[in-house]
Design brief:
The protein is α/β, with parallel strands linked by helices. The chain is built from eleven helices and 15 strands. It binds NADP nicotinamide-adenine-dinucleotide phosphate.
């Protein structure tokens, strides 16, 4: 099969190689037992793969390896008792190995692909949406009608969070860095859009219930100031490259919280929670609230350009590699 490997840790321009490899067996899955084997049509491109080309992600497989945490495609083989069957269109989270024509995912992280979504949209349905739901609802304890502010709001996690929050009845505020990203944030359901280089904090001070932050960096203290009493700032990632530190007196003074949300490792250890989140997202797709925004599609051999788009901060929505046709 065709696949893209990370062969060294020299960065996105030089670390990737197109290769031909034997197809993986059902046992080539990150959890014990047999996984679901998927003929991959599209694979998601995400920040972790960018970091993996430099050895900067927490998951550090032995070189060379096939990256790619999520795919969508058609089931070729499913273990006994699986909820999906050969021939089903699915979205699946495999953690690694997704940038290939065939990938294997745990059964509990393989979900039917709703008929209204194409394969490229399916390749953006798990990592970002499960993370967004986990961060907003399970970790951020979001309640219907609350105000949710989202940083990096035109990105993968950002657009997913806006759609889920809107679908669950939130007033949504997006923070973005450009006009083009404002358009995407509004498309994803932002009620208000603020620019990250403006005095956005003055407009929202003390009015926000939940901040979802995949960016980190300089805006951290302003995010805390944005919270009203009882508000929660949920830490999701650090695309800015800087991990903020918090003076905890700020939490005490306003009775606010900082909460971490790490979905990947958690979801893999908790099949029941992953199924619950998958069902909630399927409902939101059915209601029309969740519709992954695909910002760019590349052939697999152009994976370096796909990663460059993320690194240059120009990506919007989900970036995908297409291994087969998209419908
Ligand atoms: N905690 C978890 O379980 C979990 C799960 C999935 C992903 N993540 C993390 O969440 C983060 C966001 O992922 P994503 O897929 O949404 O990424 P993305 O699509 O590239 O979006 C990230 C956004 O971050 C902002 N940003 C600010 N400074 C940046 C910089 N120096 N370089 C690039 N972007 C910058 C950009 O928005 P503006 O230009 O508008 O500022 C960009 O749109 C990543 O760190 C990822 O590892 C965490």
């Amino acid at each position: 099969m065709r696949a893209i490997q990370i062969t060294d840790l020299s960065g996105p321009e030089t670390a990737l190689r197109p290769v031909h490899l034997p197809e993986p067996a059902p046992s080539h899955v990150l959890t014990p037992g047999q996984g679901v084997v998927v003929d991959v049509h599209a694979a998601g491109v995400s920040f972790p793969e960018l970091l993996q080309t430099r050895g900067q992600y927490q998951l550090k497989p032995q070189l060379p390896f096939v990256p790619g945490s999520e795919v969508s495609g058609v089931v070729r083989h499913a273990p006994a008792g699986a909820k999906v069957q050969p021939g089903d269109r699915v979205a699946a989270f495999c953690m690694l190995g997704g940038w290939a024509e065939v990938a294997v995912a745990p059964e509990f992280l393989t979900f039917p692909l709703p008929p209204q979504l194409d394969f490229a949209q399916g390749a953006g349905l798990i990592l970002n949406y499960h993370t967004a739901y986990f961060a907003l609802v399970l970790r951020g304890r979001y309640q219907s009608g609350e105000t949710v502010l989202v940083h990096g709001a035109a990105g993968g996690v950002g657009t997913a969070t806006l759609q889920i929050a809107k679908g669950l009845g939130a007033h949504t505020i997006a923070v973005v860095s450009s006009d083009a990203k404002e358009v995407v944030a509004r498309q994803a359901g932002a009620d208000e859009v603020l620019r990250s280089d403006s005095a956005w904090k003055d407009q929202v001070k003390g009015t926000v219930d939940v901040v979802i932050d995949p960016v980190g960096g300089d805006q951290w203290v302003d995010s805390l100031r944005a919270l009203r009493e009882g508000g929660r700032l949920v830490v999701v990632g650090f695309t800015s490259g800087s991990i903020p530190e918090v003076k905890v007196n700020r939490l005490l003074l306003n009775n606010i919280e900082v909460v971490g949300a790490g979905w990947g490792g958690y979801g893999i250890r908790k099949p029941a929670v992953s199924r619950e989140i998958g069902a909630a997202i399927a409902n939101l797709v059915d209601e029309g609230s969740v519709l992954p925004i695909v910002g760019a599609r590349f052939p697999p051999e152009e994976a370096p350009a796909a990663l460059r788009l993320l690194e240059s901060r120009e990506a919007t929505g989900k970036v995908v590699l297409e291994f087969r046709g998209s419908t």
